[in-house]
Amino acid sequence: MSKSISIIGCGIAGPVLAMLLKHKGFLPTIYERQPGVQQAGISLGLSPQTFKVLHILGLADACISLGSPLEEIVSYSQVRQEVIGKLDAPGRLREWLGWPLLMISRSAYSQFLYTTARERGIEVHFRKRLVDVLQEEEGVRAVFDDGTEAVSDLLVGCDGLHSTVRSVLFGAEEPAYLGLVQIGGFSPIPDIFRDWKGGKTYQVFGDGAHFLCTRVTDTQLAWATTVPEAEEAKEDWRRVSMTDPSGQALVQGLACADWENGPREVVASATFVTKYGLYDRPVGDTWHKGRVVLLGDAAHPTSPHMGQGANQAMEDIYHLVRLLVLAQPLTSASLSAAFTSYESLRAPIVARSVAQAKKEGQNRVLVGREQCEKRDENMMLRGKGQDPETVRLRMELFQGPFMGESEV
Ligand SMILES: Cc1cc2nc3c(=O)[nH]c(=O)nc-3n(C[C@H](O)[C@H](O)[C@H](O)COP(=O)(O)OP(=O)(O)OC[C@H]3O[C@@H](n4cnc5c(N)ncnc54)[C@H](O)[C@@H]3O)c2cc1C
């Protein structure tokens, strides 16, 4: 068997997987349904796991220069009308683990990964929407909506939340809508936050709504409010200008637009906004069939409240590539063993992260003064303004996918 690998999806996971595979002597090619890298979405938090993987490729420092390393998270209770905690652990991560927690525009990161992958000789084919995958004796055939096909030795589905590869493998089952939406965007840093030294996240816990804003560049904040909404709002991550009436409509009536001490100013000065529903799936323990395997959101989509979607995808990449290197020469039997090890290593950890993200989301939109006061008091006394379980799990996850030297 040679080493050709089709990667479906050029979002966050696809280009990094391709670069690491090429680094280890495999022959990856990416197929993406969009016409190019999308200037869409808001921001991502990249935690040390991402930088450990990017560092293997010599890309960590270049990536860090594109965002804002987080020093502190300040939490405010709208119900108690006071600051309920300041967490400076993010600022100490570099000392502990060698790498920061970086807040970055999702499109800047995606563009950086795509451009670097191209510079490293990775072929990326846009306008290739995968519609089917046929497994054959000696390889995998990817079928695209323009009638073309691509044959390779194995195929990795990095095609995100509504993964077609997943549907082909395991049947079409939609992800679960969590009854929550986020509305958010970008704003210039308002005067009220001018004294911020270094990267900061400011979050407000309200009654039935949560607001968070974070510095992503020296001049810009990314922000999002989480609110319950019965009707699904499927994500296309499209940014709408606030000069457009539909942009104005998205922020109309948001509770946080009236909150003092920051949210009001941030929402009022937004340049672009977007709205998206939040989804996840129960994390299954089988992510492969034959020569086809899932990775990132295709395998385990999550709501965003742990800030782990993009980072867990990097851990998948590290272990999958490590195991594929060990599985050489690639045979049906060695591939099956590698994929099974990959799933059994990854599934239990991601399942915990997905479950805690869901719990964190519910906590953020609690309704009723008494419940909210109890929540905020607990966070003030036990978690420096955060759910203590969320802080504990994050600190554990930050130590993945390896400590010390990389094995890839
Ligand atoms: C445009 C966009 C903006 C986003 N913005 C945010 C954000 O602001 N905040 C946040 O927390 N998360 C955001 N996400 C989700 C976030 O990127 C992922 O949760 C996480 O980074 C895991 O990455 P992934 O590569 O597994 O999935 P994704 O980053 O979602 O990438 C999946 C890729 O697969 C492509 N694809 C899907 N189906 C097919 C198909 N049939 N054939 C070929 N290609 C296909 C998609 O177009 C996409 O480029 C965004 C996703 C997208 C696609």
From TrEMBL:
It comes from the Eukaryota. InterPro entries: FAD-bd (IPR002938), FAD-dep_Monooxygenase_BioMet (IPR050493), FAD/NAD-bd_sf (IPR036188). Keywords: FAD, Flavoprotein, Monooxygenase, Oxidoreductase. It holds the Pfam family FAD_binding_3. One of its GO terms (molecular function) is FAD binding. Residues 5-356 form the FAD-binding domain. Belongs to the paxM FAD-dependent monooxygenase family. PANTHER family: MONOOXYGENASE (PTHR13789), PUTATIVE (AFU_ORTHOLOGUE AFUA_6G14510)-RELATED (PTHR13789:SF309). This is FAD/NAD(P)-binding domain-containing protein. It comes from Calocera viscosa (strain TUFC12733).
